[in-house]
Design goal:
Helices cover about 20% and strands about 40% of the residues. By secondary structure, the protein is α+β, with helices and mostly antiparallel strands. β4 and β5 form a beta hairpin.
Length: about 290
């Protein structure tokens, strides 16, 4: 499947901004069953310079500085991406989850694909007993890891209510777990916390998912949104496998991967610092168009 992805972010400030320093993670890259044919970010006002680097997880990161006084900042990323992910493995053929945990704990690599950084608590995904106990139900002794992880994602989909506005970006996984409601970020964080509580490597994935309209209804431009899911390391023979607990499905050809990290704090689309005063308003429009 080939997609054209558009992600428009607009900040409007109550007072003029003298200096704006931003870090962007808006550009997908070729990995995880996808190939990027083209990708760019248009910034208004024009920055002095844009510097690109890759971080510890091989994400594409742009840093820019704007010194033109402005009351509106527009960031428009566009990409054309080919997604051809293989079918998920036969769950029963994946190794027992205890064996995967032992392999992860003994790894000596710090490469971008290493499980080492994904087994410890992180800033937004501390371990907590309720998530560990919840996950353990799906992980009886010697059960294949992928089979267990799929069941955990399905249980989150069943037991939690998707409710936009029920949580905020800063809501902890423990709060979302207690409320049993939230959005994709919360469900991914809860799943990660539960897996790490069992010693299993799990990462947070940010990206997009194509929305499919009801039969007979036209697809609405701008109806898509940023999305988040979980990637579980299933041992060296199977590697990282994406699972979407919001929809209880594997990450497939409808998922477009942008960045990965230990939790959301590693992969926000936009973060930065401004020199100004007063409040600001934010608008975001995402469009995923099958080509």
């Amino acid at each position: 499947m080939i997609y054209d992805v558009s992600h428009l972010t607009r900040y409007q400030y109550d007072a003029p901004v003298a200096v704006n320093v931003c870090v962007l993670r808006l550009l997908p890259h070729s990995d995880d069953g996808q190939r990027v044919l083209a990708a760019s970010v248009e910034v208004t006002p024009r920055p002095l310079a844009i510097v690109e680097r890759t971080d510890a997880f091989a994400n594409r990161v742009l840093k820019l500085r704007i010194e033109t006084p402005h009351r509106e900042l527009t960031l428009h990323s566009r990409a054309r991406v080919v997604v051809e992910r293989p079918a998920p493995p036969i769950a029963a053929l994946t190794p027992a989850w205890e064996d995967v945990a032992a392999l992860a704990a003994s790894t000596a690599s710090l490469d971008a694909d290493s499980p080492a950084a994904a087994i410890y608590p992180s800033r937004l995904t501390p371990l907590f007993a309720a998530a560990t106990d919840y996950a353990r139900i799906s992980f009886p002794p010697r059960r294949p890891i992928y089979e267990s992880a799929v069941e955990l994602a399905r249980r989150i989909k069943t037991d939690f209510v998707y409710e936009s506005g029920a949580t905020e970006v800063t809501t902890s996984p423990a709060e979302a777990f207690a409320r049993k409601r939230g959005v994709c970020q919360d469900f991914a964080h809860v799943m990660i916390a539960g897996l790490r509580g069992l010693g299993l490597p799990a990462l947070y994935i940010s990206g997009y998912i194509r929305t499919i309209p009801p039969p007979g209804k036209p697809r609405l431009a701008g109806a898509d949104a940023s999305h988040a899911w979980t990637s579980v390391w299933c041992g060296p023979g199977f590697g990282w496998l994406g699972l979407d607990p919001t929809n209880a499905i594997p990450a497939g050809d409808d998922h477009i991967f942008v960045a990965r990290g230990r939790d959301y704090s590693d992969v926000p689309p936009v973060e930065g610092l401004i020199v100004s005063s007063g409040a600001h308003a934010l608008e975001v429009e995402v469009d995923v168009i099958p080509v």
